[in-house]
Amino acid sequence: MGRRNFRGGRKGGNRGGGGGNTGGRVAYVSFPEVVKENEKLQRYYDATIPIEDEEERKAFWEALRTELPNSFRFCGSKGHALAVRRLLEERYVPEIVKIERYDGQPVQAPQPVTWYPDHLAYSMNTPKHVIRKFPPFAAFQKFLVSETQVGNISRQEIVSMIPPLLMDLSPGMTVLDMCAAPGSKAAQLLEMLHVGEEARIRKAMGAMEENNTDVKAEEGADLDIDSGDDGRATGLLIANDADYKRSHMLVHQLKRLSSPNLLVTNHDATLFPAIKLPKEPSQPNQQYLRFDRILADVPCSGDGTLRKNANLWNDWGPGGALGLHSTQTRILVRALQMLKVGGRVVYSTCSMNPVENEAVIVSAIERCGGPDKVDIIDCSERLPGLKRNPGMFQWKIIDKDGKIWNSWEEVQQHMLTKEDGLPPSKLAETMFPRADTSDCSGLPLDRCMRVYAHQQDTGGFFITVLEKKADLKVRPEAPQVKPEVKATTSNAQEAKEEVAAKLAVEEEKAAEGEPTDVLPTSGTKRQIEDESEEKPDIKKAKTASPAPPETQTEVVMEDAPVEALAEPTSEAPATEVNAETDTEMKTEADVKTETESEVKTETATPTTDTPKPQAQAPERRRNADGSYEEPYKYLSPEHEVIQNIKTFYNLSPRFPDGRYMVRNTAGEPAKAIYYTSALVRDILVQNEGRGVKFVHAGVKMFMKQDAPSAEVCRWRIQSEGMPIVAGYVGSDRVIRLTKKETFHKLLKEMFPRFAEGEWSKLGEIGERARDISMGCCVLRVEPDGSDADWKERMVLPLWKSFQSLNLMLPKEDRAAMLLRLFNDTTPVINQTLKDAAKKDADKKASEETKTEAVETPEVKVEETKDTTAAEADVAAPSNDKAIKVEDTNGATEPAAAQ
Ligand SMILES: C[S@@+](CC[C@H](N)C(=O)[O-])C[C@H]1O[C@@H](n2cnc3c(N)ncnc32)[C@H](O)[C@@H]1O
Q: Where on this chain does S-adenosyl-L-methionine bind (predicted)?
């Protein structure tokens, strides 16, 4: 089954934490209904967007005033995504269609999005509050929440799914997502880099089997592409965001894909640093990374999200888009610089405003040398069924006062009449269509794509695909129209000019492949520059708590998840140490030790890598190179820990042993050993100390574990690393499971015992479980084909102790599998915890009896209470609260952070 599932599914809650947009949901606070009118907005778009037909124009505005349908996408490898989709269709949709009406209104089941490949995207216009609160939807809601939590479903706006589909991305490519947070598109891109990988690896290992459903499910995937590293994906995705907190949302969102080919960085995209590559003997000059594909999904004024962010009707003003035009152009120019010749950049916004769209495309191409250097690609044949309008050749610009300007000439005429000679609202020539004399006047802007809300009941969006035709040198930015000498030169103005000069130098350095200064990161420079600008109007978002609207200052990003139906999780940023806090699984011995002493402790180490909000953020220590992250240190293959791991698991020499990495200055394995692709390793090593801010890299492969004896390897395989390494583990550490009932038992029961003859209750794995030596082993789940609905192959870590076994799975994955495969939402059974709780209660009761001579009936009450509490602790992952209680008390608790 799919790599997503193999790679440990993941914790992490809804959709990467919802961007600035969802924070935590404000479930029970209602703000007064927003009046969905905005005179300037309507006047401007009526004057600018060429919709001639009156009826259509009416539909355009009506759609923008209607709430956005919910939408989601099935993720992971194609086979896996199709399996989860089948469940929706076969188990949940038939129940929903029976509902028909709620509150007098018709109720709609989720509908497949016809143009999305393999119909892996769905949309439904039943309001969220109905889905959340109306009991007949309960099972569907539980399914959505559970699958979203483990990363099999991504709540994503339909239009936001388009840009990655136009990237023409294939495995093996180097890809950059410049403005990636919260990360829904980056997740799509990462999935694309891994398409067909499982099948390729199996092919490379000569283990293709006749009835291998995974290989079949991925048919269409080219098995010869990217097959050089024994089938392992060699491509790279760098997901970047200028905002430090949001870059951690990216980590949160993308980690669940468990990709060794991912790097997360935190830079201002206008100055994205040149990334050094190792020196090739054949190349005398230092080589820098160039990308095959770049996504520039830039910050924008966001009026395409009016349906989702109703406050925008009040907040929208023309200044927002005007203030973003130059940043957007700089981002696109930097993207074109960093592309390989023949490479493509997809530029997108969730704005309908041409100043952020066509005007940016023209300006960027112009700065990069015109149509000889950059092509606009015709995508009209792509995504058949997706309704769209062509980009515009002519447009007008609205200034902050609401005056609409037809051309730059008109602005110039006006400037002549003004004493200060300045354009209104800092309008610039680059914002307008080009005059016929420009070599960019004839660009085929109709190849840009505009998607409007009324066309297929979505948000509004703009997408353009550009191809770099030749090496290029970037022209300097056109100087801004300056005031006459007599105009006042304030300190602020001087500061702005200084920063602008600095920026020019930095841009040049970046273009030449030198590391850029850290100064402009996170928009500090831009803030200075744009201080006097009207703040982009859309920079308002829902916050986690019901803050009054005026305090809601986060940027509304088009892709902040569609106010996920799931309960929100914390989005607090974290230091890397926090972010990497592991959901470490425990052995029975761990649980016993802890439960005996702590069964009633209610505050324990956090278990998920969702950082818990802290009253006060811990002070972050900056490294010498300006970064905050723990360093990335690679281990020598000769390291004794690596040698020990190789021996214990009898790892095939085909598995690369030079890609193991740890995250501490000493460079010694302390708690976790990570694995990365070769390219990620080369990049991290070459760029150490250069000021490149790598926020995340590597998949946790081995975790330190208390071992029951000296012969047992203290490094267990982590569930997210398991799919990467499982195929190379020697058969003496593998157990094969083929029957659905046996799998149910392992999922349902924590620590099933094999000692004292109980192995016989473990079905076909009983004997093997009894005989295999202690420590971590690979459980290969290979359905025997007796159940048509159970075809999901998996590899999972299983820990064998003295007396019992345990599947080392994060609790969300366990719960999601129980629901998905067995439609089982009843509590997980943990006999050990129950026994410990009972023992604790007995002990306490007897102490109390002794000291206070408490009467027997009272003791019984307490005993019952404690036992029940312990049961609840491991019970019912059917709601967040239950899961958190389990966290606290430990059946799947991490031991310590590295
Ligand atoms: C439209 S959102 C991106 C949505 C994202 N692509 C997704 O699909 O989830 C724009 C993002 O750009 C980031 N951003 C703003 N200015 C930036 C800059 N100069 N460089 C890089 N990122 C920037 C914001 O923090 C925000 O996360």
A: 179-185, 241, 268, 297
